[in-house]
Amino acid sequence: MDCKTATLVYQTEDHLGNIRRIFPEAWKFLEEVSFAYVQSKPDNFDSEIRKLVGEQPFKYRMVHRDDKDQLTKDLGDLLGDITSRLLLEQHFSKVVGQSVYFSTICCNSHLTADHELTLEEVLPLQCAAVKLQ
After folding, report:
1. DSSP readout, 5-49?
2. Hey, what long-range contacts does 67-70 have (CB within 8 A, 24 or more apart)?
3. What is the reported pTM?
4. pLDDT, tens digit (0-9, with 9 covering 90-100), for 19-37
């Protein structure tokens, strides 16, 4: 995230509230994907990834995002900043009642997982995602 936005987010103690006010669409999206992940709701892109890589020993859910829209840019800003990513993971983990970890992957797709993925775990997902583009 840019310096001006980071200042707005972190200048007061209500960091999550500031994120929610500045990025309302991203907040809503992360809430929706958190619940969809926990409830194992199907997603077409995720289903196609699973066909390519097979079942994995960890839980994940991937959704494709348009790489040109503002929501995708906002998600990249929020998840690319380690502090906001950790704050959001902690918050939404509490909301849904289990650990969730957020990442961006491929061409700005969104990945939710049950743990911080290793390179060995995420690389096959990345390669499958670019094949679908």
Report:
1. HHHHHHSSS-HHHHHHHH-HHHHHHHHHHHHHHHTT---HHHHHH
2. 67/107, 67/108, 70/25
3. 0.92
4. 999 999 999 999 999 999 9
